[in-house]
Structure formats: structure tokens, C-alpha cells
Amino acid sequence: MNIRRAAVQDLSRIAEILVFVKRISFRPIFQNDAYSFGELQVLPVAEEYGAPEILRHIWVYDDGIVKGLIRVEGEEIRELYVDCFFQNQGVGAALIDFAVEEFSVRFLWALEKNVNALRFYERHGFFRTGMKKLEEGTTEYLLRLER
């Protein structure tokens, strides 16, 4: 299996994946360059995710290169990101399957306007519940998906 618990030495790669995928996926939705290119920087993200209460919930897909990550807390997928260069190669599917098998995840929240993510989750057994909530500090909605 190529999935393992994240370690401190993975933090720079985790931060790199998070920063670049968030810029590509979320900048068109939020249109906030001050956040995308000002606040969202690799070093601060690495520091944030290095906190033990966050890092212990992260698992990485590593086949010699860390290609993606999943953050699972309880029965919830909190985050799932795959490096853009390795998308559509089964990395995200492997991470979801791992989370379902190992942690019995049942739900997640995804941005309503992130159509690609919604389609991906639906292909992997999640369905829209009709519940939604505002993404904190924005005017965008998150949709709840369940298995």
C-alpha cells in the first residue's frame, strides 16, 4: 500500500500540494488574490499543518513521491488534495478507499461551486444530502455529502 501516516518530514510537500491545488481550484471561485498569493504561502501552511493536532490526522499517498493527502477526523473527510500533476491517476480514489476502509468515513463538506470535486466524490459513493452552510468568512456555500 502506498498510503501512510504523514510525518514532519512531509510538511514541505504537504504545504506545496495544498498551496498550489487551492490556488488552482479556489481562486476562480473566491477571486481573492490577496488570500491566494498573499496569505496562502508554503511556509505558513507547513507551520500550521505541523501542529500535532492536525498532522496526526493526515495520511499521504507516497509511492516514492508524495502525490496527495487526506485529512480524516472521526467519520469526516476534512481535506483531500492531489497534486495537479498526479490527478486522474487513481491517487484520490486510493485515498478515499483507504479512509472508508480504515476509518469508516461517512461524510464530508465540499464547496458548492467546486463542480469537479463534487463529481469526484459522487463517483466514489458520496451523495448530496441537501444540507449546506456558509464557508466561514465568505459568501460561498459548502454542501454536505454522505456515503
Textual characterization of the structure:
41% of the residues lie in helices and 29% in strands. It has 147 residues and is α+β, with helices and mostly antiparallel strands. Strand 6 and strand 7 (141-146) form a beta hairpin. The chain has helices at 11-30, 33-39, 42-49, 52-55, 91-103, 115-123; strands at residues 3-5, 58-62, 66-73, 76-82, 107-111, 127-134, 141-146. The chain has six helices and seven strands, in the order βααααβββαβαββ. Helix 1 packs across helix 3 (42-49). The protein has a seven-stranded mixed β-sheet with strand order 1-2-3-4-5-7-6, sandwiched between helices.
Write the layout of secondary structure elements.
Elements: E1 3-5, H1 11-30, H2 33-39, H3 42-49, H4 52-55, E2 58-62, E3 66-73, E4 76-82, H5 91-103, E5 107-111, H6 115-123, E6 127-134, E7 141-146
Parallel strand pairs: 4-5
Antiparallel strand pairs: 1-2, 2-3, 3-4, 5-7, 6-7
Helix pairs in contact: 1-3
Brief overview, please?
The chain is an alpha+beta fold and 147 residues long. Helices cover 41% and strands 29% of the residues. Strands 1-2-3-4-5-7-6 form a seven-stranded mixed β-sheet, sandwiched between helices.
Order of neighbouring strands in the sheet with most strands? 1-2-3-4-5-7-6
How do the helices and strands follow one another from N- to C-terminus? EHHHHEEEHEHEE
Evaluate the radius of gyration.
15 Å
Helical residues, percent: 40-55%
Mean pLDDT level: 94
Q: Major β-sheet, in short?
A: 7 strands, mixed
State the separation between the terminal residues, measured CA to CA. Answer: 23 Å
In terms of structural class, how would the helical and strand content be classed?
alpha+beta
Strand tally: 7
Q: Unreliable stretches, pLDDT < 50, 5 or more residues?
A: none
Instruction: Estimate the strand proportion.
Output: 25-35%
Number of helices: 6
Structural shape: globular
